[in-house]
Amino acid sequence: MSGWKLFLDNNSEPTETGWTVCTCINEAIRVCDYFGLPNEISFGQDLGTGPSPHGYENNGYGFAKWLRDSVSAGHYSLPDKFTYHVVCKNLKEKDNILDIMNNLTREYSV
């Protein structure tokens, strides 16, 4: 699917249409494996319950780490005009997600 948007949160819904909502990291990884990386990601903090079998925390920070590792390993490339934003209310986690994503886009953006 080209040009899709990922909304990663289990506590809120997007305010506009056109988003694919994933409520846990496993679901988000499966969707990315099937469709490729989205053009836009909205990162929330909380995602479902329990750990991810992929070894990452089941939260926005865990998904950001999975994305960084997958792109740096060459499994995926960031789409043209890739964007993201973080709606996480936990300021430490928000900063952690932003740190990973800022470094990722600086290094791997087309």
Q: Which shape, going by the Cα principal axes?
A: globular
Element-by-element helix/strand order: EEHEHEH
CATH class label: Alpha Beta
Radius of gyration: 13 Å
- Let me know the largest β-sheet: 4 strands, parallel
Low-confidence runs: none
Distance between the termini: 19 Å
The figure for the number of domains is 1
CATH topology name: Rossmann fold
Q: Which oligomeric state applies? A: single chain
How do the strands line up in the largest sheet? Answer: 2-1-3-4
Total number of strands: 4
Number of helices: 3
Q: For the residues shown, what is the average pLDDT?
A: 89
CATH architecture: 3-Layer(aba) Sandwich
How would you characterize this protein structure?
This protein is α/β, with parallel strands linked by helices. It has helices spanning 25-35, 60-72, 91-108, and strands spanning 5-8, 19-22, 40-43, 83-86. It has one domain: Rossmann fold (3-Layer(aba) Sandwich), CATH 3.40.50. Strand 3 (40-43), helix 2 (60-72) and strand 4 (83-86) form a beta-alpha-beta unit. Helix 2 packs parallel to helix 3 (91-108).
Summarize the structure.
By secondary structure, the chain is of the alpha/beta class. It contains three helices and four strands.
Key terms:
Rossmann fold, 38% helix
Topology:
Layout: E1 5-8, E2 19-22, H1 25-35, E3 40-43, H2 60-72, E4 83-86, H3 91-108
Helix pairs in contact: 2-3
